[in-house]
Amino acid sequence: MTGDAWVWGTSLALSRRVQPPKGEIDMKKLMTMTRQFRDDENGAAMVEYTVLLGIITVAVIATVVLVGTWVSGRWTALNSALTTATA
């Protein structure tokens, strides 16, 4: 074959390659997806940040409750002192 005929003949031969069985292709895709999932660390980082956010949220709520109780006690004591002083 010469010229364009050779190119056409070669591309025709390449397009008629024997394909592996479908189960083998699916298994290769599954193995590739498994490796990608194993190597992907985005999900682990998201879980870590979520746990950290939960801990910070609990700490903030506990602080607000404790400070609120302390302020309420001080306010009540001040109110009692002012009431007794004016009476």
TrEMBL record:
Transmembrane segments: 49-71
Keywords for this protein: Membrane, Transmembrane, Transmembrane helix
Name of the protein in question: Pilin subunit
Organism of provenance: Mesorhizobium japonicum (strain LMG 29417 / CECT 9101 / MAFF 303099) (Mesorhizobium loti (strain MAFF 303099))
